[in-house]
Design a protein that fits this description.
With 199 residues, this protein is α+β, with helices and mostly antiparallel strands. Helix content is 46%, strand content 9%. The chain has 2 domains: 92 residues, Glutaredoxin (3-Layer(aba) Sandwich), CATH 3.40.30; 96 residues, Glutathione S-transferase Yfyf (Class Pi), Chain A, domain 2 (Up-down Bundle), CATH 1.20.1050. The structure holds glutathione.
Length: 199
């Protein structure tokens, strides 16, 4: 059985979305997490090494970190078609967008949010102003990161953009807005929102 370690309205909500897209059986285990305001605490039940969410347990196999969980789940259920498998020509692009999300996009967004300058040439990521043209260019050429094909990578990117849609931190882009709307219009996203509320 798949168990998602989850806290409502956090990065783990996206994995309810992915599990709903996959249409597989899973349970949600709500855990407490440390909050920005100092409330909360690491939950001893949570297998993530820093007590963060999401984390996943697949019959004793523990997976943590969003990009790893996305890849694990799409490889685990290849017949669901939510991530290109190893021999697929789209595999390289899929891995690249997943790694780019964790290694570049999130640090870029958090740097901007925290008003921290990104040291040029030494940080492993770049400023959000350099990231967005890459993504706009990619998404102007197809509805999804892999072109016509929706994948778990779109769950990570689309929900992030939907969250930042009204934020003054992100320059307005019709391409990004339309993409975010496309991703969150999916029925699995709506089901995930309802499940998130109940967790
Ligand atoms: N790099 C992690 C980030 C996970 C993360 O920071 N999750 C937040 C909730 S959105 C959390 O658990 N915060 C509690 C803490 O930092 O202790 C991932 O992408 O999975």
């Amino acid at each position: 059985m798949l168990t998602l370690f989850h806290h409502p309205k956090t990065r783990s909500t996206r994995f309810i979305f992915l599990l709903e897209e996959l249409g597989v059986a899973y349970t949600v285990r709500r855990v407490e997490i440390r909050k920005r305001d100092g409330a909360g605490a690491v939950d001893a039940l949570n297998p993530h090494p820093h007590g963060k969410v999401p984390a996943l347990d697949d019959d004793g196999v523990v997976v943590f970190e969003s990009s790893a969980i996305a890849l694990y789940l799409t490889d685990r259920f290849p017949e669901r078609g939510l991530g290109p498998t190893v021999t697929d020509p789209d595999r390289g692009a899929y891995l690249s967008w997943l790694a780019y999300y964790s290694g570049v996009v999130e640090p870029a967004f958090v740097s901007k949010f925290m008003n921290v300058a990104v040291p040029r040439g030494t940080a492993g990521w770049v400023a959000v102003e350099e990231v967005m043209p890459v993504l706009i260019d990619r998404l102007a050429r197809g509805p999804y990161l892999l072109g016509e094909r929706f994948s778990a990578a779109d769950i990570l990117y689309g929900t992030t953009f939907a969250m930042f849609a009204q934020s003054p931190l992100l320059a307005k882009s019709p391409v990004i807005d339309a993409y975010a709307e496309r991703v969150v219009a999916r029925p699995a996203f709506q089901r995930a929102q309802a499940r998130d509320e109940r967790a």
